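## tool: complex_structure
## caller: assistant
## args:
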Amino acid sequence: MNVDETAEEQRERTAAEYRQAGLALDALWLHYFGIGGDAGELEIDAYLNKSYMLRPVQRDLLDHAVHELDGHDRGRH
Amino acid sequence: MPKESDIGELPMVFARVSGLLLADHVAGPAIARIAQAAFESIPGSLGAGATLINAQGRPTSRASTSTLVEEADRLQYDLGEGPCLSAWAGAAPVRVDDAATETRWPKWSESSAQRGLMSCLSVPLLLGGNGTGPAQAIGALKVYAERPNAFDAASQHLLEHLAAPAALMLANIQAHESAEQLSAALKNSLHSRSVIDMAKGVLMERLEVDERAALRSLTDRSRQEGAPLFTVALSVLDRPAEPDHERP
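## result:
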């Protein structure tokens, strides 16, 4: 995660990884919720489609949720 | 695709729809789980209950940890008055310190006192209060106690802390998910959330940083070590990993 990137850049990067990983939205929301996310599934959907902006901590949590679901910690659990 | 201008209404619309669609046999076990968690985490409580309430003020699903609580709860909806209905209608916490002297809901207070339930604390299950429009209440979570003045601001904070994720979960789950899936997902998620939240708090204090920086510290370690955020959070709290814990 780049500390200097703008909100829009971060959104673009997270959305790209989400699309590339081919994740299901409901599974992503549940994982994001499980690590502390506070936004609803519709807001997440809108964010990933660039029509909504999440607050900084929520953006970081969603980015991390995509990262974890994208197999980066596979086999650990 | 929603436009930016109308996105604020969507969470509420969605909540209303999902609240109505969620069948009792699916929502039941989940709210029973929430009631149990409230009972276990609020000191001095004799029992707890959780209720989903539709737009007409009728309960669609309810769960209680004891029959006494269930009676006091049912009474509110029969009488059409009481702290939980007020918490739901006003979308704000309501506390009864002594049912014997309570005047806001005379009929309910009298019956509650007769049953030996002198204190009650009720918080709304709220949705959409994070800058996307006014919060909407989809139900209430409450605890009861035998003695007067059993609950204070700290109990209220604890109960609200539990109600927020519970409401979010209930509003976002899909109606086709089974009761077992929902209940297990809720249990795991609430546990995982609280562990990560605590670890974040510890780091904010230890490193003297804000919430985002504390979270970054956790996610950076998670990525470096290839370990889930939950595991990293556990290690910050100096707790052994829980091998039987199912990931959310």
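## assistant note: The first helix of chain B runs from residue 10 to 21. Residues 1-21, 244-248 of chain B have pLDDT under 50 and may be disordered. Handing back to user.
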